[in-house]
Amino acid sequence: MIIMASALPTFTKIAKVIRLNRHGCTNRPFYHIVVQKTKDNQDGPVIEQVGSFDAMPNNKNEKLVALNFERIQYWLSQGAKLSDPVAQLLGLSGFLPNHPRTIIQAWKNRREPPRERKIEAIKGIAPPLDNPKL
Amino acid sequence: MATRAVMFTIGKFRCFPILKNRVAKFTSSSNLLNTSTFDPGYTRDPSEVFFKENVQALLDRLTGRDYEKVFQNRKLGQRLEPPKYELLTQAEVDQVMVEMEVKLKKKLQMPPLLKEREPVTKILSKDAELQGFDNCKYVFIDISQGINDRKREVVVRDPNGVLRDASWEERQKMCQIYFPLPGRQISMPKMFEETHLQDCLDQGQYQFVLDRACAQFEPDDPDYIRVTRKTYNCIDENNKFSTLRSTRHFGPMVLHLVLCKRMDNLLFHFITSKEVKAAADLVRLFHLVWSDSSPSELDEFQLIENYIQGPAVKKPALELAWQTFLEIEKQRLEALSQQNKASN
């Protein structure tokens, strides 16, 4: 049963956070950008959804991000914290300054390409599998 | 269905195989009889003329008020309901007619003629330090409630670190994904590609094409302008003006033809169907658009004659039709006067 967290009474002030909740299916992530109490689980009660983030690029090589800036501003004014990925997204959108993590990741990507895993054949027993995930 | 929302939010179209057709080459066709579909016909901004009150009044009068046609049950994929019959007093009937008038005005609201929109070039920030943070671009849309789609913030962060306003195509796609309008698809329907569009027009589906274009595109979208102009020119070539009469598209079509100076077929149509008032209105519109002044003649017959003698392009056909009409009128008046004498 889905419980509206805003309908439950709180007696102690628990911090609120704006973070990504993973929805979607196996191997196909889709994130809801939500305002939640920090102690609640990722699939637990949500105070408000303030956006979405599609982590899989579409056929135009775009990642779509929807952000309800008006509500995000409100929750920030109420003292909500941001998780790192959400802060990075807000930095990329221009709402906040660029997050240091984005800058560091960009620098790392430029310094060397992401390492590829090489699977060696086991001689006489099995050829290497084609699955790059292993 | 395909009826357009009353608020014309202005927002455009993305990369697609049709792109090379969209960037139309505006060269005039060498074949004067068959105007090229890419020939714009005029270069002036139509919105200067379209929104004038006297022009709107004339277009409204020309459109006509065939209640049967405007309120007919159209097969648009919605459930049809049988008509309701009610017993009303005269006062109640008048009240209902007033309400119907309001509904009619809404159904006959004309989609505006605008010039093509300029591409978006605004760059918000250039962050070279973010180059390579990801190998795809991030498209952000502001989903705050109560914002007009035109003014909604849609920005794109490219892999090279540039933060820019989204292009018209990206903007329309994003707004349609998150705030869908009925009757509109995210990508352009295949129907509006050249070959398929030509097929539709050959079948005579003018109103369907125009309604769908109205639902799919914004009025200043180059594709909307291309589709509507092609449809109007097709109707003009085939003399199928009655298909659009009493629809919301008749006004913009008439204005388009007047701006292209191709209104002679329409005038011929009005004269042969004995609609003198409509013919006179058309000539008045011509004068308003091209010389920005209402003509001095108050007599409709004189007005039309002066036009046929003067600025008309297809003089022989029009003169013949006009003479025939005058003779028929004369005979009709004679018959009427004889009838009156006989009855008296």
UniProtKB/TrEMBL annotation, chain A:
GO terms for biological process: mitochondrial translation. InterPro entries: Ribosomal_bS16, Ribosomal_bS16_dom_sf. The keyword Hydrolase does not apply. This is Small ribosomal subunit protein bS16m. Belongs to the bacterial ribosomal protein bS16 family. Keywords: Mitochondrion, Ribonucleoprotein, Ribosomal protein. The keyword Ribonucleoprotein applies. The gene is EOG090X0KAD. It is found in: Mitochondrion.
